[in-house]
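I hope you will forgive my troubling you with a question about protein structure. The matter concerns a single protein, recorded as an amino acid sequence and a row of backbone structure tokens. Please examine both parts with care and let me know of anything in them that strikes you as inconsistent. Here, with my thanks, is the record as I have it:
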Amino acid sequence: MKLVCLCSALDLRYRYGCTPAWWQYLKGLHEEGHDVIAIPYMGAAFETPWWRSYPNPCDLESRAFSAVKKWFGSGATSTEEGAGAWLNKTLLETWVRPRWVDRLSGILASERDVDAIIVFTIPVNHFTGLPTMIRERFKVPVLYFDGDVPASLPRFSGFASGFKSYEGADLSEYDGVLCNSDAGADDLKSMGARDVCTVHWGMDPALYEPVTVRQDRDVFFYGYGLEYREDWFDAMVRTPSRSAPGVGFFLGGKAFPDDVGEATLLGDVSFNTLRQACCRSRINLNISRSTHASVRGSSTMRPFELAAMGCCIVTNPHEGIEEWFEPDKEICIVGSADEALETYRALLDDDARRRAMGLAARQRVMECHTHRHRARAIVEYVHHINSASG
């Protein structure tokens, strides 16, 4: 297959949560034998051994917008609310969208055997009208992949710093929609999506292969902010760290509050040093945001990343997590601060159990949750859409 993939970003410096996953999915599609063409919506385009690329038609504009968004958050992204809504909508309709139409028209004119265009987590309302134009003019199906479901859904209002992706959007324009949430798929159908497929997160086991380092940290959590997970951060880090002076708690990432209990802040962790940071820790925490944890079958990347690295994982309750990992064998689930502390102490006293859990979790990823498993699911869905359209 030849697939044109429009990605929210390819440059890891933008620190979009989905970007490392898009890299792995594109790599998986390549390894499965498909011709991948990637174009970023934010930042510059570049080629790798796994994909070809075309330039972002709005590279400079996207960089300028990123700077504005950094200061004003989601207030800079709305097309319906706030002082900047009229300007945002006008710029999209008169400048950004026409340039993308021209760029994709040129690509499809030269790449005459494209099987599908897949839009990876670019705000749906930024491309209003584009899928219809592509389908009518070039007879190429256009699919949308939202990797932020359910947080991106209108009922959750997205992340405070994110885009209002579905304001005024028309999902029925797309031939098919993919997402990372079983229950969230029902929302997308109710919002007008004609056909929805769930593809959960998966990881490249070579990229996340465990590294042998001395484990000199007891409990480690890596994340960006506490939005939608303040209560579980308190139960799994802040309170236990005050109750166990002999247990070392460490935090990597950004946007933590002033009060982190007795945990030690390590600062940001770059993507290329994440393995070392996690493998140094005897226990790694997955603290799912309530948006995902409370909506059945809404996968997040972190447990798959940690499992691929062979880490011993402790998580808060997450609806459907048992579909991906077996509790107590591959992952531990705690329901309170007391239970968290009890679990930490038991695991820290049992080296063999921690190692066995890490090995079992990585084996589960290898068998069920690699980037190539997910690439196959994407391709199967493209075949389904092409067959349905005749």
